[in-house]
Q: What sequence folds into this?
């Protein structure tokens, strides 16, 4: 039986977890997932904190962001933001359950598709200290262009913090010549949920192609969810 070491939730400090599966048969078939890979993705997306509702990938994203800030407490504990008041934060699409906390930063901006296309952000260069997005890159037709734009709008030494659904037991593949596959909910096919890239263990190649030279990973002790951190 798979055993999990429970780490306090970086969002709220909660210790309780509950699991509900989020994948459905058609998506498992389209992704050609093995039972073990299915378990990993279900955990990544469906293992939620019973206190704040953040799933594993949101908790991992929060943990990576807090580590970049060198903040030893939780995201919820960030009531006094005086020491981070100068940070300019750009969130691209709502990052799961984290947006209400990120929006407390004085210099915070949320942009969303389709008004903003990550492949060509209508934003000035060198503008933000942090760019944050969660499970968005796989839906961008040209993810390298998207990563290049994230780097462009960051200030020197700025940081990109993101999650993507990575299956570490396989390599990345593009779905260019494959039938359309969608995330979201069964039966729904919104344009912004179509999957263009299925990321595997070589996900970092897109970052290198986009010009990133400093890329690291943050985990909560499991490869089932990774936060990718890029420094400009």
A:
């Amino acid at each position: 039986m798979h055993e999990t070491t429970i780490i306090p939730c970086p969002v709220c400090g909660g210790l309780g977890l509950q699991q509900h599966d989020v994948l459905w048969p058609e998506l498992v078939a389209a992704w050609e997932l093995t039972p073990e890979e299915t378990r990993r993705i279900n955990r990544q997306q469906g293992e939620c904190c019973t206190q704040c509702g953040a799933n594993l990938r949101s908790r991992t994203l929060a943990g990576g962001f807090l580590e970049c800030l060198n903040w030893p407490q939780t995201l919820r504990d960030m009531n006094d933001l005086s020491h981070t008041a100068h940070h300019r934060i750009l969130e691209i699409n709502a990052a799961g359950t984290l947006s209400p906390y990120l929006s407390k930063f004085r210099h915070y901006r949320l942009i969303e598709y389709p008004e903003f296309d990550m492949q060509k952000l209508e934003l000035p260069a060198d503008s933000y200290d942090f760019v944050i997005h969660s499970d968005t890159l796989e839906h961008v037709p040209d993810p390298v262009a998207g990563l290049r734009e994230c780097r462009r709008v960051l200030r020197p030494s700025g940081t990109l913090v993101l999650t993507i659904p990575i299956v570490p037991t396989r390599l990345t593949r593009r779905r260019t010549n494959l039938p359309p596959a969608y995330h979201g909910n069964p039966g729904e096919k919104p344009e912004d949920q179509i999957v263009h890239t299925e990321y595997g263990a070589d996900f970092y190649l897109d970052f290198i192609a986009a010009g990133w030279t400093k890329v690291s990973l943050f985990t909560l002790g499991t490869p089932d969810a990774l936060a990718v951190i890029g420094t400009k």
Observations:
- The domain at 17-231 is CATH 3.40.50 (Rossmann fold).
